[in-house]
């Protein structure tokens, strides 16, 4: 029998708790006509009330109300009100033990309730083991078991029995999982896996540690070294379909747990578990190395093209003076020739009148030398960097298990040709080498007198490979980010079943013709309305002339009375150390309990040490420096805590706890109801060891960096944060934050700036029940699209961009629904699919259909924007909250000069998560104390206008001490607030 506890004390208490909301009370405890008929067969008010209350407990939570138990007052009142009986009658019924037993037997017979017994235990064990193959979270298993028992009208046993049953099911599932992963392994593969725990020759690292190292920089040498890692993983020769035999969540959990183990820890595992853990590590490691290799290739090709482009521009700029001299000279010669033609003089003499013929001949040669290609293209300079690519290209192409869609079969055939040439050492391309993949831009460089140019052919193939992988036209077997497009989606048969049953988890109906008819009718109505308003000059705070759209800027000034209140409240807030603030917030919310041990699922024993580790992430101080600044901690202790207790999922749960607490704060309602949000990216420079991992975007200058993309609710709570590449458009990640957070927020409307929208995103957002409202810069350049057969909207002509291709949307409607369903169900992340669909050069049917659907939604939004000042104001207020939160984040993330210096992407994610958690804690703490400050002002007789409270903000940090030693109070008055500063202090 398993010894490990499945649930915490809080979870045990929550399991059998009664509903908390009125909606749940109505759903679970509303008595039907049949119920009432049976209840009224009993004599007396006490018997009827007692019988009904026992029935309610048997149904939910599914337990017998003990003879010594008193029903919850809320339930008693709810049932009594339905029966129109006084709740006090329970006191009479409660004394009749014999009657209660008789009623219980009658209820079980009438409604089929069964007492949990050994046969039920065995059946539940078999059912729950299948669930445990999908998840190992104790709470989820017990909740699933409780739901299963309730559906079969089986009364719940004691929580300890449920916990023991779940723990045993988990143990059985683990054994089944180990067997599935190891049963088909050959003796050679088993030995290869065991050898991963031994040290490499001439190194202090084990083979496993070396294989898990991430590349340091996008260089040819790093690609070659990483190819050696890929070859080592592939030599294990694991069965091809092994990763698909078990649930990915369980596989990933095993890999994470194994990654934290030392070789000595793994050696102590039972053989089946150790081998299965090594298999999970190998599967995860192979996919990771493949993705990292493809990422390195992508960045190297990007660097090569940027270097060629820069050199092309630099050469042109350096030759500027000489080019200008030649232009002036040829201008003079041209004028002399024109004059000679007019006067009938000798043209050659005219030239020599400007300069001697020998000098003219020399100037022509110099002009030809200075002249750039006719199309002014820098592509011819890419070949100057061929050596960089050639260092890794042969091994790179040989190692990749590539597959291709029909559209790029020519490219795959070209890669096969290059593989054969590399294998044989041949240099000349065969005469029948595939050329269909070569674009016009490359054609002029490819053709030579001797046939195809090998150098340009290979560079073109490698560049097109990069594009094809991005778009999904080509994929790599075993990769996560670059696998077959079809594998990302919900399988065709389950989707067809959902579609046929009409239960798609989307906010639109399955009938595309009906849906589009409604949207296009609405679009036509809006076009007519705005056309009429624009023609009459009646657009609110906007005007549309023949060439220019002008929208009056909104007044963002804060009233003087509001500013005075802001200053008064700020003076009242107590000065607090960041450590005391975290302790107080944790006392209110218990967010630290979510940082459970990866293996045992238990909370951290040293509470202060855990908070210290979180603070090291949030302040960007790092573990070593934090250990120096925090008495009683060491780098080793903090590193151990981080390895076992801090993960993406624990950060996500802890953040949700803080966001939910903010949602429940009464004062937060002055800022919003939690149904709107905004998102924005904040760039942090990559410095030190992380500089090579950063990306460059001209928008932010020439320094490499990372972007923290954060979603903020209208109540100022930052409910999601992601680390993204500064070169990727923000819109790619908008849906991830909305869909995959753990909080109770129910966002209905979302705001972004210009970088946060694309037509594809406009298309998908309504399908997933979100209203999308970006603030679009240069709105007049963002065109409207009209339905087929629309009349000429004369006043809107400057904004019209064309006619919608409705037939193309309908032709791909089911594919659109399948994509949206896959995103909604989490089969694939929204960012991955949007990145692929928006990648050059893919213009497949689904991408085009989504673009056309997005044009409908974008046009509707722009028309709404033109006539609704309230919408513009909502968007501005929402985005201002996000920008203000970024200012707080910049102030908090101040150590190491505010630079990211962690090379590993996982550590960079922890930095972003820690920062978001810390800012969420500050927002919650400030909200509580801002409310107390307002109450204090009113208590001292100072009137506070309710309308001004929305101008207050929980984002201030001047009163928070973020520097110095980070010490934790060992004794603290539980449940007490810190005193506000005196009202008289200026």
Automatic annotation (TrEMBL):
Q: Which residues cross the membrane?
A: none
User: What keywords were assigned to this record?
Assistant: DNA recombination, DNA-binding, Plasmid, Transposition
Query: Region (Disordered) spans which residues?
Result: 673-696
Q: Does the keyword DNA-binding apply?
A: yes
Q: Where does the record place the Tn3 transposase DDE domain? A: 580-966
**Residue stretches making up the DUF4158 domain:** 7-169
Keyword DNA-binding found:
yes
One Pfam family here: DDE_Tnp_Tn3
Superkingdom, according to UniProt? Answer: Bacteria
What family classification does the UniProt entry report for this protein? Belongs to the transposase 7 family.
The name on file for this protein is Tn3 family transposase
* Species, as recorded: Hymenobacter volaticus
